[in-house]
Design a protein that fits this description.
Blueprint: E1 2-7, H1 11-22, E2 28-34, E3 38-40, H2 45-50, E4 59-61, H3 62-68, E5 72-75, E6 78-82, E7 87-90, E8 95-97, E9 100-103, E10 108-109, E11 121-123, H4 127-142, E12 148-152, H5 156-171, E13 176-180, H6 192-204, E14 208-210, E15 214-217, E16 220-223, E17 228-230, E18 233-236, E19 240-241, H7 244-247, E20 259-261, E21 273-275, E22 280-282, H8 291-310, E23 324-328, E24 334-338, E25 341-345, H9 346-361
Parallel strand pairs: 1-2, 1-9, 2-5, 9-21, 11-18, 12-13, 12-18, 13-14, 20-22
Antiparallel strand pairs: 3-4, 6-7, 7-8, 10-19, 15-16, 16-17, 23-24, 24-25
Helix pairs in contact: 1-3, 1-8
């Protein structure tokens, strides 16, 4: 009997487990390693921050999905991966050997001063840590008169979080929210009309936009021009960095430390290792690190893991030419993009809400 170890409970792994529950793996011991018993759905976190969802509506218990797939859940954190020895080492010191490994551990927010004691600097990645740390930060902010919150990062995630916090503060503590978007402005890489609508939505929410590069410091943010911006809390959403243990694993990684994979999401250096989600770097084409691609890669990952066990040919994951992006604007409206099309309004929020709730509800224990 072969042992398949799934490292991390990311979106791709949860979708793959759901597939294994329908089509069980023959003669396979299935083990999932995750530091949390919950999987947080990143698409609903801005809605939770804005007050549209309860905390429990944005997460899924991992255990029931693992059990339905015929597997075993190990609640622990990986600290080392020894690809040559085919072993994952956990924080507890336990070694978990594998015949086949799949890695979907996400990424971490890129800042050297995150989570220092009393610094009030939070990374939005990994999502599970942010979701668990934010309530205490919010309670601290409520105790201050008109606190100032700075969000670093002008991508879709940073814009959503800034608008969600502005919406929440309008009902609660009247906090001031600043989005330090960087020199490329708000949501770079999207089409001009989408960018204009996002900017208008930010302004409508009362978010101050600063188009300079900034980095967090202990008492706020230091901008590229040298000006320091005081902040009572800083949320870092500037893109993810690879988890350090991957670079020391012996797997082939790119210059940023993400694991290099082929079109089947198999490691280019170790053919018994597959990698999905934010953790990987495709060698054949650029693939954005987004939940959209992670969810769509899940069924192909499940198929390829089953094929690798049985010695069958692997399938390629072909990202769609256009991806649907739905960005929550904080006030029960949303802005959408699909290829050349851009649209917005309350109906887009309802559409996004239905998609997000449907994803979470598709798992047992939701």
């Amino acid at each position: 009997m072969k042992r398949l170890v799934l490292l991390g409970a990311g979106h791709a792994h949860m979708v793959a487990l759901r597939q294994f529950a329908r089509d069980p793996l023959p003669e396979t011991e299935l083990v999932l390693v995750s530091p949390s018993r919950w999987q947080y759905y990143s698409g609903m976190i801005p809605g939770w921050l804005a007050g549209h969802y309860r905390f429990d509506q944005c997460r899924v218990l991992v255990g029931p999905t693992v059990i339905a797939a015929g597997g075993r859940l190990v609640l622990d954190r990986a600290v080392e991966l020894r690809a040559a020895e085919q072993e994952v080492v956990l924080a507890s010191g336990e070694g978990v050997p594998y015949d086949l490994l799949s890695v979907d551990v996400g990424s971490a927010s890129d800042s050297a001063v995150l989570n220092e004691p009393d610094s009030m600097i939070l990374g939005v990645k990994p999502v599970e840590r942010f979701a668990e740390d934010w309530p205490a930060t919010e309670r601290s902010l409520r105790a201050r008169a008109r606190p100032r919150i700075v969000v670093l990062g002008g991508g879709a995630g940073g814009a959503e979080i800034a608008m969600a916090l502005a919406r929440r503060s309008a009902d609660c503590d009247q906090a001031g929210v600043v989005l330090v978007a960087g020199s490329n402005g708000v949501v770079p890489g999207f089409r001009p009309r989408f960018r204009r609508l996002v900017r208008r939505a930010l302004m409508r929410c009362g978010v101050e936009i600063v188009e300079e590069y900034g980095e967090p410091v202990v008492d706020g943010v230091r901008l590229a021009g040298g000006r320091r911006m005081r902040a009572d809390a800083v949320l870092v959403s500037t893109g993810g960095r690879a988890l350090p243990f991957l670079g020391a694993s012996g797997l082939a990684v790119d210059e940023a430390g993400f694991v290099r994979v082929d079109a089947s999401h198999r490691s280019t250096s170790h053919h018994n290792v597959f990698v999905a989600g934010d953790t990987c770097s495709r060698v054949d084409q650029r693939l954005d690190r987004s939940g959209v691609h992670a969810v769509r890669a899940g069924p192909i990952l499940a198929r390829n893991l089953a094929a690798a066990i049985s010695g069958k040919p692997l399938a390629r994951f072909y990202p769609r030419r256009f991806s649907l992006y739905l960005l929550a604007a904080g006030d029960c409206t949303a802005i959408g993009s699909y290829g050349p099309l851009t649209f917005s309004g309350a109906w887009v929020w309802k559409w996004k809400d239905r998609i997000d709730r449907g994803f979470v509800d598709s798992f047992p224990g939701a």
